[in-house]
Each structure stands twice: as structure tokens, then as C-alpha cells.
């Protein structure tokens, strides 16, 4: 029987809770059902394929799996009672606001989102720094050329003797 709970799964004291609730602590599972409710059940563990999370199918009264739609999905097969698996398949209660009831969500910590935002910001900063450096070097080169032409440092070549002959014959 699936026992719905009103709090998060007991990840901190898993072993003691498993011993209290199941005759065989290795059969203890805390997961969601197909309706998204958190609960616990004592069942023989099943193998869960990579990129999937265990769930309890209330209608069929058995453990099942569902595809993982988060970013940190388990990249390998594991036993359904393995609580050390990737965090995305762990379930906690999350309060949305003071007026709404608790809801369940898979705990895909915001670290991936934060890392992505930081990466994007760093890329933007590097791009802006590159553009500013390019403009600085361009101005520096243009300024040097203008200074050289103002100082008469840019010298024109003396026309070749062939060019002089051609020019004199044309006039």
C-alpha cells in the first residue's frame, strides 16, 4: 500500500525510518505516485534505467519508472531504493507561498541554472572586453598612423627612373 506523507522524504535519517516502516529496510522506498504525491511503500527494489526515476503506480500497485525531464537525470541504471542516486529523483515538499498548500517537486538544485547563468554572463563579459580591446587597438593604430603622417615620418618613395622617363615623355 502506498502511504501518502505530508512532508519530504526522510533522506537525512533514511535507515532509521526504513527500519521502523518496513520489515525489510532494503524494501523501503520514498517516491511519488503517478499523481505527483509523495509517499512511502515497502516493495522489492526494481532496476531503474538511466535517465528515468522510480515512481509508484497506485492503480497497478507496483513500482514503475518515469522518464526524467530534469537536467540532472541519472546517467546509469540503479536500484529503485538507492537514495544516493542523482538528486533529481529525490522528492521534497516545497512551499510555493503562504496561502497555497505544499506541492511536490523533484529536487533538481538550482546549481545547474546558476552555472548556466554565470557561464552566459562570463561569455558576455569576454565578448564585451574583446570588442573594447579591438576598438582600443584600432584607435591606437590609427592615432599612430596619423601622428606619423603629421610628423612627416611616412615618406613617399622617389619615383623610379623608368617612371621619370615615362612622365617626361608624356609631357
> Which structural class should the secondary elements be placed in?
alpha+beta
The geometry reads as rod-shaped
How many DSSP-defined strands?
9
Domain count: the total is 2
How is the biggest beta sheet arranged?
Answer: 5 strands, mixed
| Helicity level | 25-40%
Which parts are unreliable, with pLDDT below 50 for 5 consecutive residues or more? 95-109
Strand content: 15-25%
Short summary of the structure?
This protein has 171 residues and is α+β, with helices and mostly antiparallel strands. Helix content is 34%, strand content 23%.
Description of the structure:
By secondary structure, the protein is α+β, with helices and mostly antiparallel strands. The chain has 2 domains: 3-109, no CATH class; 110-151. It is built from 3 helices and 9 strands; from the N terminus they run E-H-E-E-E-E-E-E-E-E-H-H. It has a 5-stranded mixed sheet with strand order 1-3-2-5-6. The chain has a two-stranded antiparallel sheet with strand order 4-7. Strand 5 and strand 6 (62-67) form a beta hairpin. It is rod-shaped and about 115 Å long. The model is unreliable at 95-109 (pLDDT under 50).
Strand and helix layout:
Elements: E1 3-4, H1 14-21, E2 28-33, E3 38-42, E4 47-48, E5 52-57, E6 62-67, E7 78-79, E8 91-95, E9 102-106, H2 111-150, H3 161-170
Parallel strand pairs: 2-5
Antiparallel strand pairs: 1-3, 2-3, 4-7, 5-6, 8-9
